[in-house]
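User: I've been going back and forth on whether these two constructs are worth ordering. Before I decide, could you fold them both?

Assistant: Sure. I'll take them in the order you sent them. The first construct and its structure tokens:
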Amino acid sequence: MSRSTAIALLPVRAVGRSASVQLRSLAGGDRAALSNAARAATADDTRRTLGALKGGALKAGQLLSTVETLFPQDPEGRWRTALTAMQEANPGLPFAEVEPVLAADLGARWRERFSAFDESPAAAASIGQVHRATMRDGQEVAVKIQYPGIAEVMSADVRALSIALRATSLVARGMAMPPLVAELRTRLGEELDYEQEARWQNAFAAAYEGDPDVVVPKALLATRRVMVSQWLPGVPFAQLALTGTSEQRDRAGQMYQRFFLESPTRVGLLHTDPHPGNFRLVGDRLGVLDFGSVLVTPGGLPETFGRLIAGMLVGDDVAVEARLRADGFIKAGKRFEVAKLAGYLAPFTEPARHEVFTYSREWLRTNFGTINDPRNPDFAVALQMNMPAEQLFTHRVWLGLVGVLSGLHATVSVREELVRFLPGFAAGLAGGDAPKG
């Protein structure tokens, strides 16, 4: 209840600031300055509240950071700063509170495993914090320690989210809410198991060992609540977006896009946490971190997504509707206006129209400013789709990818990459995808 109250008070305080702006501007105050100050205060309040709550609340904040460009923009960029800070710069717990986890999982003499251990966290995330250390053999490592009691916190957050999603289903009829809640519970439960995360991380590390474009640190030791991995240096994407050259941002964006397109086939797993804090530029390679949220993808990404995007590009509404019905996205006997879906899918389809595309904050804000407005009739069309849980996660990852590329203002090759790596896309463009009979 205390966590729910803390989150519920965020919009209450924001409304209070808005009312204050109205009153003070009527009294002669500078409305623009007052509005900017209110937005900055709300951004800081959101960052502090979600950062302190950890768990599912902070995980939601990190997800929002992938599309931070859609939030109100103030001259000082406080929303951008607040949301990007949730990627890594969250307050950690005092070491005395997490040390018992190390002692319980690694033994009372855990310090003997290291020649040096920094008790100040190098990064703090939703379910654990990372400390930099040096092994006895001189190897630099990252020690990830799970917050004590976080499993109960995540369980409470999932219950609260379950109630919210069931309420949403009253509006978004046809959305597969029970499967989605089950999928979320599974995903968050898996993130609490560092032994499973280590196995996934090492699967990626093995698949990309010696790769010229991607580097994944190996997990060296793992218990359920502690994981020790090779330390990965580099420039985080949030910093790269601010200080990187155009060449560095384009290079990072191209490798980032390819990683999500290629790895489901190459590794048989999809990294489902695309927020920028998990990625960095290591020299001229893409460094990838945090494999707690992973979707098993035998055979690669589902072809339905590639077929849908290609069908929208071809402009054959009849074929697109037939494919959507065949793939189970539209229930039998239900009317569906495919033409209106084009506007809703523009952030996905527009880049695919180009061999080379430049993502930008302005482009993303323009697209999402109209398609995510419930007053827009195209918005209602999307809610009519019967989206299976696994497809929702694939679409969420792609949305995050588009948001991060826009934040980097990256110019990347798109059409050739989709033809090469996205299952179903090439066949859909060729017109050989429509269901027969």
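The second construct, handled the same way:
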Amino acid sequence: MKLLVTGGAGFIGSNFVHYTLKNKPEHEVTVLDALTYAGNKENLRSVLDKITFIKGDITDGDLVDKLVAENDVVIHFAAESHNDNSLLDQWPFINTNIIGTYTILQAIRKYKKRLHHISTDEVYGDLELDDPVKFTEFTPYNPSSPYSSAKASSDLLVRAWVRSFGVEATISNCSNNYGPYQHIEKMIPRQITNLLVDKKLKLYGAGENVRDWIHVDDHNAAVHVILEKGKIGETYLIGANGEKSNIEVFNLILELMGKDSSWLEHVNDRPGHDMRYAIDSSKLQRELGWAPKFTKFEEGLKDTVEWYRDNGWWWKQQKAKVEEKYKAQGQ
């Protein structure tokens, strides 16, 4: 098949491209990416001769129309996705996540192509720390930030186009990803690279907030399973039972990198910081037969630490600018 990957130069999207070329070489891959701060063509440096790369915006109707017509399936990763940034400037999130998704849906509808829409567990809001419940496909939407609200809107647009216009689409909502090529403004790569340049870890508040972590390769393997076996119109939650409090993650990073607790600094908490996310991926595992490879978070985190240690060329030029921005916010 001919795959159009929107946001294919971003963190999860670029890893999807690498995973596809390695494990599904029968597919042809075209990447559409606007190369905003989160999109980095260097993420695809080693495979540019094996794909078609188009620099462009998913809100560009003419361009999207042309590319959708030329491909069989659209895997829609493109999104503005950083919560902190959405608190400072909301328009990029509205424009990309809502208007961009609408633009793609109109082209999908016009040419009767297949869509898989990538979303987040943050659309469900958060859970109490002592609540045994996890998010399921039936959990009501309750987003708490401009970012998660925009993603919730995009999910609902996809559902509406399936029901109203018969668009062939599936949706997946995934827990927090980690792994190679993740922008160093995000939690795990920020802390790893801090230690690599002899800076302390920066922990929001007391670090009690819980996230459900999944290695990016496990996420992308699940996306391929949904493309191959998923039922049109269905939503699938992707998670690897990787619940960890932020303080647990920070302590693991310190341990893996040979540092003690003196390298940990508490900073101002983020406004409206969700307490806990937890994914129940039993539907995906039961109906489609998917299972994660990285069943132990520590193993995946160790691989991630090694990747950032070995690939300073990729992140060192960005580091000072990222930390300057956080310093201005007291974080």
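Notes on the second construct follow. DSSP finds eleven helices and twelve strands in the chain. The first strand starts at residue 2 and ends at 6.
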